[in-house]
Write a structure and sequence with these properties.
Shape: elongated
Strand content: 35-45%
Order of helices and strands: EEEEEEEEEEEEEEEE
Distance between the termini: 36 Å
Number of domains: 1
Number of strands: 16
């Protein structure tokens, strides 16, 4: 289920966040890549289940903002979160289009709409996505995800193009895969949580890579 307001049990919600950093490579005859946001594993927390037992909930977030690099918002036909082989998509929730524009391009959001942010929740009860941690001794959380993934799919599923602010036409892949991976010396993703379980999160930029313009013809 996808909703437009924050809920404790909603698997995916739109949030108001600060714009993600957007950059292009300079001093080159053609832009090689653009960064349009970030993908994060925010961390996990212990929660009460409806039957009175304790469980774990995990949070995964996508931030999108291409306003510093493109003329118009970039549109995607599907956004898919993948955790441990399970997936949750915007199409499943009835959102045919997600954009990098304010409010993810959704209507009915009060103006001024916030930058696009999708929060996907995973849990042991009533959630599509699984969790990335288990409860260890002394009610501590043990992280157990080696990676989490995100897939951005164009409206047609094929390569597509759009205009950059400098007038350049940017052609890119119809499907872009983004991974947050555990470090070389880590057995699982580290959301950098303190003793109070306040986490900085583990994140990577969302980058679109250029293709020869003829690939979008």
């Amino acid at each position: 289920m996808f909703i437009k307001t924050v809920s404790a049990v909603a698997p995916l919600v739109l949030l108001a966040v600060s714009p993600a950093v957007v950059q292009t490579k300079s001093n080159a005859p053609q832009t090689k890549s653009i960064t349009i946001g970030s993908f994060e594993y925010l961390g996990s927390a212990i929660r009460a289940n409806s039957d009175g037992t304790t469980g774990v909930a995990s949070s995964y977030k996508l931030n999108l903002d291409a306003s510093a690099v493109t003329v118009d918002p970039i549109s995607f036909g599907n956004v898919i979160f993948v955790v441990k082989g399970s997936s949750l998509s915007s199409q499943q929730g009835g959102f045919p289009i997600i954009t990098t524009g304010p409010g993810c391009g959704q209507s009915g959001i009060p103006l001024p709409a916030p930058p696009c942010s999708l929060l996907a929740l995973g849990g042991e009860e009533g959630f599509v996505l699984p969790v990335c941690a288990t409860i260890g001794t002394n009610q501590t959380l043990v992280q157990n995800c080696v990676s989490v993934a995100l897939q951005l799919v164009s409206k047609t599923g094929k390569n597509f193009s759009f205009q950059l602010l400098d007038g350049e036409t940017f052609c890119t892949n119809g499907i872009t895969n983004v991974f947050v991976l555990a470090g070389n010396n880590q057995t699982a993703l580290d959301p950098q949580c303190d003793v109070n379980n306040v986490c900085k999160g583990a994140s990577v930029p969302v980058v679109l890579h250029v293709l020869p313009i003829q690939n979008c013809s």
